[in-house]
Design a protein that fits this description.
The complex is a heterotrimer of chains A (about 375), B (about 100) and C (about 230).
Chain A: H1 2-21, H2 23-58, E1 64-70, E2 73-75, E3 77-78, H3 80-86, E4 91-97, E5 99-104, E6 109-115, E7 125-128, H4 130-136, E8 143-147, E9 153-161, H5 167-170, E10 173-176, H6 178-185, E11 191-192, E12 194-199, H7 205-215, E13 219-223, H8 224-232, H9 240-261, H10 266-277, H11 282-313, H12 321-325, H13 342-361, H14 364-368
Parallel strand pairs in A: 6-10, 7-9
Antiparallel strand pairs in A: 1-2, 1-12, 1-13, 3-11, 4-12, 5-6, 7-10, 8-9
Helix pairs in contact in A: 1-11, 2-8, 2-9, 2-11, 2-13, 9-13, 11-13
Chain B: H1 3-31, H2 33-46, H3 58-61, H4 95-98
Chain C: E1 2-11, E2 19-29, E3 34-38, H1 45-52, E4 60-65, E5 68-69, H2 75-85, E6 86-89, H3 101-106, H4 116-129, H5 145-157, E7 163-167, H6 175-190, E8 194-198, H7 202-205, E9 212-217, E10 220-225
Classes of the chains: A alpha+beta (about 375), B mainly alpha (about 100), C alpha/beta (about 230).
Chain lengths: ~375, ~100, ~230
């Protein structure tokens, strides 16, 4: 056993000397490989954590949202629909929701204006999300002007801002009183934006949804299950840019592996011949190549994933900001809770370390079994 | 010092850091519970249905509530009108709900 | 010590380029003596050395090493014997570039599972023996011809073999270095090593260190000389 360890350590020593003498080439190799792992791992860590958090948060979302469609478009829903839905057996509560989008021309950002059911905000006051506060450079005590549907400008004072940690749900929110909401948007008293429905027994939900569809044929029912599925599918690998990154990474790796596999250089073949001539067996050569592959891929994997973790959870996925921001002006600071999927980390490990190590060993096979006397000539 | 020793030390440090990473994550999950609760409260209180990820347009902001036609606003080919469209795909539709409509 | 009986080696058998490097050689190499295979290039010297040194197998014939038949041994055992019994000094030096002289000399012992520190100690000791200790940490490509030659000798001795095989060892050395080399060989013989050299350099085969000269021509022995 001792001998086995010493043998591997000795061979590793030689492998490291061998790698060090082509310092620049191998440094470049490790750097590029680390970069690939870093990008892949960043995307994996971010999307998993986001999906986890989404599923936790949206579990508390209303069981059903009822929207009214007019000519295929989302339109205001009459409040009278509320009583009709309430009458359905199994429904525990129906509430009207008032919310809408407000485009702020001053900064070019879109806010989501919302009325809180508990009337927490008095007329003339608003509570804003961290993103709004940041984009408008406005803090509690400052005012933001809103242009109503009639062209009148009203000023609303910020009473409080939501914490930046709650940004994932509140970043672009502007909580407003009902009076001010109707002042800005002109939504008549008899109408609401949509209705939220809570039921007693979640198992009866599809039945209840069908009933709503029956009695209110001009409505669309969005179930909580669909919400969860939306966010579970988010950033799915089929998504355009992510597929591009993944594809790019795989392509880069294939180029690497091919470069390694397209045969050893004359120099390398000669060295293997020398090693065999001085007494190294074929299996020792294979061990050497194994360590060569492992050293590069293992270092790259560990460094890549550590950097990715810091990137996603300490710098809020900074490098991908331009991608995620798109055309939006208001960009939420992604303070996600670090949910990590050990299985993903493990599979990333196997995907990065194993193929590369194998790709390093295979091409040297033919050279390794060469007869040592070839070096005598 | 032997090169292999240097390498093993380097590897050891990395693995310790990796362990630290997992520890940090679970620690953050614990301490982040209060923030998580804050968000849950907001979701419950306001009946929120979407995360604030893409504020480019209405149907990117409220992915779950976007009706099927908003995306086609300008033209049926305008599906990926906004950059975030390249990141998000429409979730699989629940066929069950619409089966009996005929 | 080493007995060869009717050894034949044919290369590229069956192809148009087929040729016999060694044709029916029977030879007995004595232990603790220095034997030189002498002959022009193409006479089969190098081939014969590699056959004796377990680097290749003969096409026909038998080789016995200390009464053990080695011609039919499986690859692994052959390698094992080669590692433990023979040390090689090549014509081209064949040092690995980019690593130090000491590391080059230590290489043969790596896969044997010995502790690194003891391998290193032995290497340094050998380096001191051949007066190249100051060059231990120089990269192999920076060594002069004579220094490189001595590193290869140290490498050949790393696993304490009983037989040293050298193929045209003085090919890249000047007279002074050649004479020094033969002196070193003399000391090794005194230490009990068996020496087997191939050379067409008179400084080698006419040296007083050499006990026996075997003349080769066209893969055959031309009659043993003393």
């Amino acid at each position: 056993m001792r001998m086995w360890i010493e043998r591997h350590r000795n061979i590793l020593d030689f492998t490291l000397s061998s790698l060090v003498r082509r310092k620049r080439k191998n440094a470049a190799l490790v750097s590029v490989y680390t970069l690939i792992v870093f990008l892949l791992a960043s995307v994996l860590l971010f999307t998993y954590a986001l999906r986890e958090e989404a599923s936790i948060l949206l579990k508390e979302a209303p069981e059903m949202i009822v929207q009214r469609l007019v000519a295929g478009r989302h339109d205001l829903i009459p409040v009278t629909y509320l009583e009709r839905i309430e009458a359905i057996r199994g429904v525990s509560s129906v509430k009207e929701r008032l919310w809408g989008y407000y485009y702020d021309p001053v900064v070019g950002a879109n806010y989501t204006l919302m009325v809180a059911e508990d009337q927490d905000v008095a007329p003339g006051l608003i509570a804003v999300g961290e993103g709004v506060s940041r984009t408008r450079l406005a803090s509690p005590g400052d005012t933001i002007e809103f242009r109503t549907y009639q062209g009148v400008t009203i000023e609303l004072e910020i009473r409080k801002t939501f914490s930046s940690e709650s940004g994932l749900v509140s970043s672009d929110l502007v909580l407003i009183s009902e009076d001010d909401f109707r002042k800005v948007f002109g939504t008549p008293k008899e109408y609401a934006t949509d209705l939220t429905v809570r039921v007693r027994n979640p198992k009866e939900l599809p039945t209840i949804a069908m009933k709503v569809a029956e009695i209110l044929p001009d409505t669309r029912q969005v179930l909580r299950e669909e919400l969860l599925r939306t966010y579970d599918a988010i950033f799915n690998w089929r998504g355009g840019i992510l597929l591009a990154i993944l594809f790019g990474a795989v392509l880069a790796f294939i180029i690497f592996a091919w470069d390694k596999a397209s045969g050893l250089s004359v120099e390398e073949k000669r060295e293997i011949g020398i090693l065999k001539a001085i007494g190294w067996e074929t299996s020792d050569i294979i061990r050497m190549k194994f360590w060569e592959g492992l050293v590069v891929s293992l270092s790259s994997f560990l460094m890549g994933i550590l950097l990715a973790y810091i990137h996603v959870f300490f710098t809020s996925f900074m490098l991908f900001e331009p991608v995620l921001k798109g055309w939006a002006v208001l960009y939420p600071a992604f303070k996600i809770t670090p949910f990590i999927d050990g299985a993903q980390v493990a599979s990333l490990f196997f995907l990065t370390v194993v193929p590369y190590t194998v790709a390093t060993i295979i091409p040297c096979w033919r050279a390794a079994i060469v007869d040592p006397d070839s070096v005598m000539r | 010092m032997r090169k292999s020793s240097v390498f093993f030390i380097y590897l050891f440090i990395q693995i310790v850091l990796l362990g630290g990473m997992f520890t940090h994550a679970s620690y953050k999950q614990q301490t982040g519970l209060s923030h998580l609760q804050e968000k849950v409260n907001l979701v419950q209180r306001l009946g929120l249905t979407d995360l604030c990820l893409f504020t480019e347009a209405s149907y990117t902001r409220h992915l779950s509530l976007a009706d099927f036609h908003t995306a086609f606003q300008d033209s049926p080919m305008a599906l990926e009108h906004f950059p975030s469209g390249s990141l998000v795909i429409r979730p699989p539709m629940d066929k069950k709900m619409y089966e009996n409509v005929d | 010590m080493i007995e060869l009986r009717d050894i034949r080696k044919v290369f590229n058998s069956g192809k148009p380029s087929e040729f016999s490097a060694v044709q029916g050689i029977s030879l007995f190499i004595e232990a603790h003596k220095a034997t030189v295979l002498k002959g022009p290039s193409g006479s089969g010297k190098t081939t014969l050395l590699s056959l004796i040194g377990c680097m290749a197998r003969p096409t026909a014939g038998r080789i016995r090493l200390l009464h053990t038949e080695i011609t039919s041994l499986p690859e692994r055992f052959l390698t094992e014997i080669r590692r433990k019994t023979f040390g090689f000094i090549f014509q081209q030096f064949n040092l690995i570039k980019g690593i130090t002289a000491l590391e080059n000399a230590m290489l043969p012992a790596y896969p044997l599972g010995e502790k690194f520190s003891s391998i290193k100690k032995r290497g340094l000791h050998l380096f001191e023996l051949f007066n190249i200790a100051p060059k231990a940490n120089s990269k192999a490509e920076w060594l002069s011809g004579g220094e490189a030659q001595r590193v290869t000798i140290a490498r050949a001795l790393m696993n304490n073999p009983s037989v040293i095989i050298a193929d045209e060892p003085t090919a890249h050395l000047d007279t002074k270095l050649s004479l020094e080399f033969m002196e070193i060989l003399g000391k090794l013989k005194e230490d009990g090593k068996t020496l087997l050299l191939a050379s067409h350099d008179p400084l080698v085969y006419e040296s007083r260190v050499v006990d026996r000269v075997v003349n080769l021509r066209d893969g055959r022995i031309e009659g043993a000389g003393e």
